[in-house]
Design goal:
The protein is mainly α. It is built from 16 helices and two strands. Helix content is about 65%, strand content about 0%.
Length: about 475
């Protein structure tokens, strides 16, 4: 049990009073720097390189490009504030699972965990590790001329991706200390690459519309609606809530969780604005909107030698850092699920000596590798699960309101700034995005409803085991 006191999250010198925790449970080994590296590392993956040109298509001017990305950052910041209150109030591993269970009942948390552990989290890791493997193989072909005549088949990519997932899982199985150092190194390497990219653009002459097409990848494509641009931007900010999944392992959670979620989101917003500024400075708005390889085109226009190799290397580091963070945080969902439900108790075992949920990590790795090897053509359909994802975002943000009424006496070290407007804005945004996803792919959305119904059935069946409800 934790004894919390209401504090100012920005105030220094405030320490969370806590009893000595059981050695078989998570220990607080993540400092503020580690939590921020985790937040930034998961958010900044490879999406920015794909979505930046698409968002530019929907903008009528460079300033509107900035406006889209700033709006996405502010909406994400609203969500981060909601999760900061919940995570600092209930500093346990599992994130949404914990909050949904307390707000609406164990069934809600079970459905979230079922969806995340069996489909979304393994699918997300599979997608990112696939991108890492693909660009790693392209990088090898670039630097080794003897391999350039070799084709990169989907099987080669799948096996390399599986190897990366296994290696990352082994690192995080050695404990939170080993895992956090790996995550910190990968995040810092990623940020160093982005700083270099922006620096190249700053040193290059401002070409704008006068710069000739940098590569044959630049094509004329129709403009996109502004609503699609916002959806793409928010998709690129995805992963901002992952720090809440490891709340039980963050030191001084009453202030550091808030700082990690909010500070990490602000830092990512600045990064995305700087990257878009770099693309616009060198390529100009029209060429940026027409590019299918915007970072590579920017480097070529700036006169950088071996631009393709440098971008492949940067994407490899970005994807690997993102996958590492998702491996670390995703296993905490299934661990929390197993800790509360006797039928899945083996998932809730915390291995004391390394300090990691090895069973949960192993299951997650097995599910991810199965998707990579057996369901390679199915990976794209995982993008259409966004309806359920935004549905859970809506429910979790509204849990702030529900839990304030349901558990008014629980100390809240941080309370959402601008409550209740901030909560309602984020909930309304998530609800709208869920509706948009339902309208965009109705049949895929229907499949997700069926999948959730199966999860609810399994929840009823697992109650056959002796009940010992969620930990308080």
């Amino acid at each position: 049990m934790l004894e919390l006191s209401v504090v100012n999250p920005w105030q220094k010198g405030t320490v969370l009073n806590e009893q000595v925790c059981d050695a078989s449970e998570p220990r607080r080994a993540l400092g503020l720097f580690d939590a921020i590296c985790l937040t930034v590392g998961v958010i900044v993956g490879v999406g920015i390189y794909q979505t930046a040109p698409e968002v530019a298509k929907a903008a009528v001017s460079p300033w509107q490009v900035y406006a889209f990305w700033l709006a996405g950052g502010l909406l994400t910041l609203a969500g981060a504030c909601c999760y900061a209150e919940l995570a600092s109030t209930y500093p346990k591993d599992g994130g949404d699972y914990v909050y949904l269970s307390r707000a609406y009942g164990p069934w809600a948390g079970f459905l979230f965990a079922w969806f995340q552990c069996t489909l979304i989290r393994p699918g997300d890791i599979a997608l990112v590790s696939w991108v890492f493997a693909h660009h790693l193989l392209l990088l090898v072909r670039t630097w080794h001329s003897d391999w350039q005549q070799w084709g990169v088949s989907s099987w080669h990519t799948a096996w390399v991706a599986c190897c990366s997932v296994v290696v990352l899982t082994l690192f995080h199985s050695w404990g939170i200390v080993t895992g956090k150092w790996l995550q910190n190194i990968l995040t810092l390497a990623k940020l160093a690459g982005i700083v270099w990219l922006v620096g190249v653009a700053a040193a290059a002459p401002a070409g704008g519309e006068a710069v000739p097409a940098a590569s044959s990848s630049i094509v004329e494509l129709p403009a996109l609606p502004a609503t699609v641009a916002i959806i793409l931007v928010l998709f690129t900010y995805g992963g901002w809530s992952d720090a809440a999944l490891v709340a039980a392992e963050v030191r001084r959670p009453e202030r550091n969780i808030f700082r990690a979620l909010v500070g990490g989101t602000i830092l990512v917003t600045v990064i995305y604005l700087a990257m878009n500024g770099a693309f616009l400075r060198v390529l100009g708005h029209a060429q940026m909107a027409g590019s299918s390889a915007v970072a590579e085109d920017m480097l070529k226009a700036a006169g950088t030698a071996k631009a393709a190799a440098w971008i492949n290397a940067l994407i490899c580091v970005s994807a690997l850092g993102c996958a590492s963070g998702m491996v670390l945080t995703g296993a905490r969902i299934s661990y929390a699920l197993g800790a509360d439900h006797p039928a899945l108790a083996w998932l809730g075992r915390w291995n004391t000596r390394p300090g990691a949920p090895r069973h949960a990590l192993a299951l997650q790795a097995a599910a991810t590798c199965a998707m990579l090897l057996l369901l390679r053509d199915f990976l794209d359909t995982l993008m259409y699960t966004s309806a359920a994802v935004y549905g859970f975002y809506t429910a979790t943000s509204l849990a702030v309101v529900v839990l304030r009424r349901k558990e008014p006496n629980v100390p809240r070290p941080y309370r959402v700034t601008g409550y209740p407007v901030t909560v309602l804005v984020f909930a309304a945004t998530s609800l709208y995005l869920m509706y948009s996803a339902l309208m965009y792919r109705p049949w895929h959305a229907l499949a997700m409803v069926v999948y959730l119904a199966v999860g609810l059935l399994l929840y009823r069946l697992q109650n056959i085991w002796p009940s010992r409800g969620p930990k308080s």
